[in-house]
């Protein structure tokens, strides 16, 4: 934050009690995230900044009525696109949950539309009550083994470093390239270091040797830990640990035991990928804070992780605390244990009250035409979906793990009809299809997936991390084909089909990832999607669309499907659908 001379002199005068503050909070209990205490006193605000704690008079007075005055929350790593909302609407959803700053990586839209997508996200998030800080996508595409809509070199990213809300390089996902010191990733790291000093990591399934390499390259964070020992090893080597609670990846419970009084200052929260309905019903970082308290962390420690720690991680020197010189981003809490948010303030302005957004209505920047016409694929035919198998009826299968991004590679018996794989509800085996949708290449990857539990029908979406091709799964080819064609007709989104009929759809015409509709309209459409899923016999124990969207990400173990075929993440190579027959025809985990 910069000041001109008059502003600084005014703030000093208010701090000195020479003139009244713009705003004073009285009768509040202040959450001191530095000492881990609750203190009492007036809080003075001038020009959107805290300038004093003590006895102050103000032009406007807020009577906190003995509520807790807490710093607001910072999401340390989030992909706004995963909410299926534009930044303008996303802000209205997360602000009532106490999140006033997010660190976002627009690599979803960048994988579809390159620099045009990044420009759009920056423009659409400008002048909002939510402060959106950007990390530049480091790996577009995520790997060279698939087809995305764009390829971003260091020269493509250079222009963005002049933007005041760009703070570094986003999650480095292509570990083999980093390990080998590939020119393209080293160039991006060196360019970032010339302009900024922060690089995020993505160490899914990697060992301590990999941590050494990431830290040597200057990577500071990881949000892909699965065990307490994973967390300790990252902290031991100087990383910041992000405890993630998203719609699929829910890691906080398994990691919280690694957080101690000695290392808390290196721990923060993030959501990464969270769907709109989960944000509305469950919350954002406020949910992480609440869950951490339920799991035994002290409320002040949990709030510190949700505010000051995230600010310090990203070198936001004036965020994350109720103290002079810090931005007046704060919450009034009715209850410290349950994080009941009464009001949310950004820069001293009331932006949310009792769970509703009450801030300024900004004019959204509409998406340009090239961002709303991004689904380009030839017509898919039934023959394109065939999976030829030998008479032994044994095949490589992707086994999903509900509420997890990791998949297992298994080898098992499958149904074969006329030499081709046939889905089986009894065995919980469905067909999985990925169709390249950016360049009309005609590439189609096909595979077998276990764990969705559909009794009939098919689903399809253009949200398929990170290249965002079309991905579909179903119990029969006919419904899969209808779902794919419907996606093309609505320019991307989510589709549910049964018996050849479209049961529900959620159009996401902005890059096939986001809707420009108000968030409540999108939420209603999402509700219709979930209702339609029950008609497929789905048990609704996890989010099948979000789960399916990560079955295409070839940087998270252990087996995925891209437009170029099945991919073994651990060996970083393609594999055939067919597997050698085994003595045991039952499902056998590869590990």
TrEMBL record:
What general EC class does the enzyme of this chain belong to? hydrolase
Statement: the UniProt record of this protein carries the keyword Manganese = yes
Write down the chemical reaction(s) this protein catalyses: adenine + H2O + H(+) = hypoxanthine + NH4(+)
Pfam families assigned to the protein according to its UniProt record, in alphabetical order: Adenine_deam_C, Amidohydro_1
Q: Which organism is it from?
A: Pontibacillus yanchengensis
HAMAP family membership: Adenine_deamin (MF_01518)
Q: Which SUPFAM superfamilies match?
A: Composite domain of metallo-dependent hydrolases, Metallo-dependent hydrolases
What's a GO biological-process term for it? Answer: adenine catabolic process
Q: Which GO terms describe its molecular function?
A: adenine deaminase activity
Name it.
Answer: Adenine deaminase
Q: EC?
A: 3.5.4.2
Cofactor(s) the record lists = Mn(2+)
Which residue ranges does the record assign to the Adenine deaminase C-terminal domain? Answer: 405-572
What keywords are annotated for this sequence in UniProt? Hydrolase, Manganese
Organism domain of life: Bacteria
PANTHER family, A to Z: ADENINE DEAMINASE (PTHR11113:SF2), N-ACETYLGLUCOSAMINE-6-PHOSPHATE DEACETYLASE (PTHR11113)
């Amino acid at each position: 934050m910069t000041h001109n001379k008059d502003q600084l002199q005014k703030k000093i005068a208010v701090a000195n009690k020479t003139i009244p503050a713009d705003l004073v909070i009285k009768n509040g209990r202040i959450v001191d995230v530095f000492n881990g205490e609750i203190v009492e006193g007036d809080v003075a605000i001038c020009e959107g900044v805290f300038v004093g704690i003590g006895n102050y008079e103000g032009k406007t007075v807020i009577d906190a009525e003995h509520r807790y005055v807490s710093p607001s929350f910072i999401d340390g790593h989030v992909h706004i696109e995963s909410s299926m909302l534009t930044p303008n609407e996303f802000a209205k959803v997360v602000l009532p949950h106490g999140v006033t700053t997010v660190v976002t990586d627009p690599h979803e839209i960048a994988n579809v539309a390159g620099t045009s997508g990044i420009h759009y996200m920056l423009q659409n998030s400008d002048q909002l009550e939510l402060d959106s800080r950007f990390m530049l996508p480091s790996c577009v595409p995520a790997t060279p083994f698939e087809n995305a809509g764009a390829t971003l070199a260091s020269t493509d990213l250079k222009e963005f470093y002049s933007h005041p809300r760009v703070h570094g390089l986003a999650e480095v996902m292509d570990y083999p390239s980093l390990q080998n010191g590939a020119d393209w990733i080293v160039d991006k790291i060196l360019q970032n270091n010339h302009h900024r000093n922060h690089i995020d990591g993505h160490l899914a399934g990697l060992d301590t040797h990999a941590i050494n390499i990431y830290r040597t390259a200057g990577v500071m964070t990881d949000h892909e830990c699965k065990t307490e020992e994973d967390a300790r090893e990252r902290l031991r080597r100087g990383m910041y640990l992000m405890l993630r609670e998203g719609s699929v990846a829910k890691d906080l419970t398994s990691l919280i035991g690694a957080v101690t009084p000695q290392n808390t200052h290196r721990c923060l929260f993030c959501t990464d990928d969270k769907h709109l309905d989960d944000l509305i019903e469950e919350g954002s970082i406020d949910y992480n804070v609440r869950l951490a308290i339920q799991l035994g962390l002290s409320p002040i420690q949990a709030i510190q992780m949700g505010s000051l720690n995230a600010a310090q991680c990203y070198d936001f020197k004036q965020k994350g605390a109720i103290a002079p010189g810090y931005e007046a981003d704060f919450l009034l809490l009715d209850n410290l244990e349950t994080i009941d948010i009464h009001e949310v303030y950004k820069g001293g302005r009331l932006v949310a009250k009792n769970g509703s957004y009450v801030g300024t209505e900004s004019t959204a920047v509409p998406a340009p035409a090239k961002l709303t016409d991004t689904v380009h694929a030839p017509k898919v035919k039934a023959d394109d979906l065939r999976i030829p198998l030998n008479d032994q009826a044994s095949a490589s299968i992707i086994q999903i793990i509900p509420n997890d991004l990791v998949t297992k590679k298994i080898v098992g018996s499958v149904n074969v009809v006329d030499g081709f794989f046939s889905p089986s509800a009894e065995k919980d085996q469905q067909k999985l299809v990925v169709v390249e949708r950016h360049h009309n290449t005609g590439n189609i990857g096909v595979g077998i997936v276990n764990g969705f539990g559909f009794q009939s029908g098919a689903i399809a979406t253009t949200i398929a991390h990170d290249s965002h091709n079309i991905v579909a799964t179903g119990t029969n080819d006919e419904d899969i084909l209808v779902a794919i064609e419907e996606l093309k007709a609505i320019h991307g989104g989510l589709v549910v089909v049964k018996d050849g009929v479209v049961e529900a759809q959620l159009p996401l015409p902005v890059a096939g990832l986001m809707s420009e509709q108000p968030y409540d309209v999108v939420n209603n459409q999402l509700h219709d999607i979930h209702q339609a899923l029950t008609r497929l016999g789905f048990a609704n124990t996890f989010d099948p669309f979000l789960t399916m969207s990560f079955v295409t990400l070839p940087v998270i173990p252990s087996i995925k499907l891209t437009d170029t075929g099945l991919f073994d993440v651990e060996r970083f190579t393609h594999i055939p659908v067919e597997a050698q027959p085994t003595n045991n025809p039952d499902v056998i985990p590869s590990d």
